[in-house]
Amino acid sequence: MSASAQAHEDVKALTKKLRDFSVKYVKISEADKAHSRELVENYVKGQVMVYCEQNSALPILRLEYAGSAYEGLKTEAANEVDIKVVLKTNRQEVTVEDSGIPGYVRIKGAKDSKLCKYASSERYISPKRLRNRWFYRLVVKAANAFNSNSSVSDVQLVVRYHGPAIQLDITRKGTGGVLLSVDLVPYIHIEGDYYFAPNGAHSKLSWKKSFSLMEKSLLQHMDTDHGCRHELLRIVKTIVNRELSSLPALDSYHLKTAFMHYIEENPYNWSDQNSLGEHFIGFVGKLQAYLEEGRLPSYWLPAVNLLEGIKPRVVQNMAKRMKNILTKKGKRNKVLK
User: Fold this and answer.
1) pLDDT (tens digit, 9 = 90+) per residue, 109-125?
2) Are strands 80-88 and 60-66 parallel, antiparallel or unpaired?
3) Range(s) of the chain covered by CATH 3.30.460.90
C-alpha cells in the first residue's frame, strides 16, 4: 500500500474512532436539551426574571443567552446554562474609560445615575457592589418568593455566589438533586455591541469587555455547510475534561479561542466523509503549537496572551501531552477508548 493510501486509511479509522467516542461520551440527547430549555423557560424566565424586572431598582433591558449551551458546544450533560442580565444604560448616564489593561475598562456614572449607589466616591461603578448589593439580593428575593408560594411545585430554587455570577440552582424538592445550574451575570450594555461584565481580576473597579454574543454569532451556525465543526470541538473539550491530570490548566475558553483561530484559517473541507479525522489532527496540532510557543492570542484582542499566568512548565507539559495524542497511535487510542 502506498504512503498516501495508508494515510487515507489511518484518517478513515481515526474518524470512526472519533464518531464512536462522540456517541459514547459527548452527545447530549434531544430530550435532555428540551428539558433544560423547559426549566429555563418555566423557572428562570417565567418566575425569577419576572420578579426581578418588576422589583428591580435598576432597569433591566433584556436577557441574553450565551455560552456553550447556546453555541452548540455543550458536552456530556445539559445541566448548566449561562444567562446575561443586561442593564439598560445610555451614554449620558455612564462614561467608559480605558483602564490601561487590554480588555478592561472603568465605568463612571453620571451624578444623577441610579448606578452611583454601587459606585466609589469618584462615581466609578464597582462590579462587586453591583453584584452583591443589587443583583444577589434581588435574585434571593425572587427565589424566596417562588419557594414560599410554590407548595405544589416539585422544585426549589437555591441561590449562591459563583465567581462574577449569581448561581441559581433549580433543585428537586425533597432530595435536593440539582436539575439545572444557571449562571446569571449582570451586564452593562452601552449602545451598539459594547457589553461589559463584572470581573475583578485586575482591579476592584474594572469591568471586562465581553465578546460572548459575538462568539455566539460566530459559533452557533458555523456548520451551515453540514460540516463537523461543532462535533470536533465538543470531542476535544471532552478529551481535555477527561485528561485533567495531564491538561490541568487548559479550559473551555482556551479551546474555543484556539478553535476560532483554526476555523478562520481553515474554512473549507468540513463536510467530507473523513473531515472529522483530518481536522482533529489539524486542530490538535494547532493547540500543540500554541502551547509549545507559550502564547495563545485572544481572538478579539490579539495583544492579549490567554496563556499568560499559567506556569511555563505546566504549559510545556501540556504541549507534550498534545504531541503524544497527535503522533502516538497507542496514546491516542487510549484517550479515545
Assistant:
1) 999 999 999 999 999 99
2) antiparallel
3) 30-210
Residues 6+ apart with CB under 8 A from 315: 249, 291, 294, 307
Write out the H or E segment, with its range, that includes residue 205.
Answer: none
Q: Is 98 exposed, middle or buried (0-12, 13-18, 19+ CB in 10 A)?
A: exposed
- CATH architecture for the domain at 221-335: Orthogonal Bundle (1.10)
Show the beta-strand stretches assigned E in 152-261: 155-162, 165-172, 178-189, 195-198, 206-210
Cell 465538543: give the residue: 234
User: How far, in Å, CA of 98 to CA of 280, rounded?
Assistant: 39
CATH topology assigned to domain 30-210: Beta Polymerase; domain 2 (3.30.460)
Pairing between strand 178-189 and 80-88? Answer: parallel
Contact between residue 218 and residue 260 where contact means Cβ atoms under 8 Å apart: yes
**Under 8 Å CB-to-CB from 298, ≥6 apart: which residues?**
103, 257, 304, 305, 306
Q: Which residues make up the CATH 1.10.1410.40 domain(s) of the chain? A: 221-335
Closest alpha carbon to 225 in 178, 263, 193, 197: 263
pTM over 0.85, yes/no: yes
> In whole angstroms, how large is the CA radius of gyration of the chain?
22
Contact 165, 38 (CB under 8 A): no
The band of 246, judged by pLDDT with boundaries at 50, 70 and 90, is confident
